[in-house]
Amino acid sequence: QVQLVESGGGVVQPGGSLRLACAASGFTMNWYSIAWFRQAPGQEREGVSCISAVDSSTVYSDSVKGRFTISRGNTKNTLYLQMNNLKPEDTAVYYCATGSVGACGLKAHYYDVWGQGTQVTVSS
After folding, report:
1. Contact yes or no for 30/53 (Cβ under 8 A)
2. How distant, in Å, are the alpha carbons of 24, 55, 102, 111 from that of 50?
3. Quick check: 23 pLDDT over 80?
């Protein structure tokens, strides 16, 4: 069974850091592009970052560029999102998604396998 499970969310003060993890099972993650999305209450799901299956290149949204870093773990089936200098506007449920065998992108329709999400709250 193909499955993605996110972890690592929590409550952090502005300026703080969190590292999210996405554990994959039922398939080899390195064969697919994989992405992080987020969704805040009342807002549409937003692509945050992705890493390509083709050449491991990465893409970041303008809102997180320079603060977030996406990476694959040393084990083949783990994805991370290191989030530094967090801001209140980063508050959202964060999802990992996969399913694209080409270059990655930040549009939700590129992906057909999604995790259940992990809540990130940035508040003082």
Report:
1. yes
2. 15, 12, 12, 11
3. yes
